[in-house]
Amino acid sequence: MGADSAQSINLRKTIIRKKPTKPFVDGEPAYEDIPVKFWEYIDFGSAQKVPDTVVDKSGLIKDRQYFREGFFTDYDVRVHAYWNFLAGAAGYTYGNNAVWQMYKKGDPLIIPCLYDWRTSLDRPGANQMIHLKKLFEIYRISALVPDQSMIAGDNPENGEHIRAARSRDGEWALIYLAQGQKVSIVMEKLKSERLTAYYYNPRSGAPVFIGNLKKKDIQQFHPPTQGVENDWILVLDSNISNYKKLE
Predict the structure, then answer these.
(1) Are 138 and 172 in contact (CB under 8 A)?
(2) Which of 23, 56, 73, 124 supports an S-S bond with 62, CB 3.0-4.6 Å?
(3) Domain range enclosing 131
């Protein structure tokens, strides 16, 4: 993941601890398709901004290797979105490098783009915000309580960081696994003795059924896939009808 994970995590922790509690929104997260640390590669004092060999005649990037740290992707967008909401955010701002500047081919360069703004409207990260909305229309953010005590064991403050939240009434919980890592959950935080468990795929919006479980003290879960870009949301719910809404 291109973003500074530790800095991002610590910023949220600082905000959450402030009193009185206030709503917060990440208004400037990782923009899809923007070069990571773009300011280190762009000469803002020049009209051209980058060497001629980096962009084609229309102004679009043709030499991606020039930006040595790569570009923020749909994965970065998802990680920051779910980290934010499960940390208690009141909202999230999706951004795309071409869309924010409404870049069309031949325009003067600001931050060079991979695509023009019309093409960028259909980029993966933009489309995946639909799946995020679908999930949080069922599990309302107004009912969320961030609860990291649900996670048993170590929880690193890097790209493998896990975020957990539950409903105020203890009827359900959402746990975001940024790299599909296995996780042990303290189940006593949930009220019902029997729970429907499933994974929600933030890339496709599809649920993957785990089973109807009898609650134990601590239960371990292993997502279907692991590694960078293989993020999953573990859902534990006392009401199976919510799972059926996502099928």
Answers:
(1) no
(2) 56
(3) 5-136
Neighbours of 188 (CB within 10 A): 12
Query: Quick check: 146 and 87 in contact, CB under 8 A?
Result: yes
| Bridge partners, 220 (sequence order) | 184
- Residues 55, 82, single domain; the answer is yes
Question: What pLDDT shows up at residue 5?
Answer: 59
Question: 10 Å Cβ neighbour count for 165?
Answer: 23
Lowest mean pLDDT of 9-13, 16-20, 22-26, 103-107, name the range.
Answer: 9-13
User: Both 151 and 232 in a single domain?
Assistant: yes
pLDDT digit string, tens, across residues 97-119: 999 999 999 999 999 999 999 99
Give residue 2's pLDDT band: very low, low, confident or very high (50, 70, 90): very low
Same domain flag for 148 and 204: yes
Q: What is the CA radius of gyration of the chain?
A: 20
CA distance linking residue 136 with residue 132, whole number of Å: 6
Over the stretch 57-75, which tens digit does the pLDDT of each residue have?
Answer: 999 999 999 999 999 999 9
Report the relative pairing of strands 172-177 and 162-167 from DSSP bridges.
antiparallel
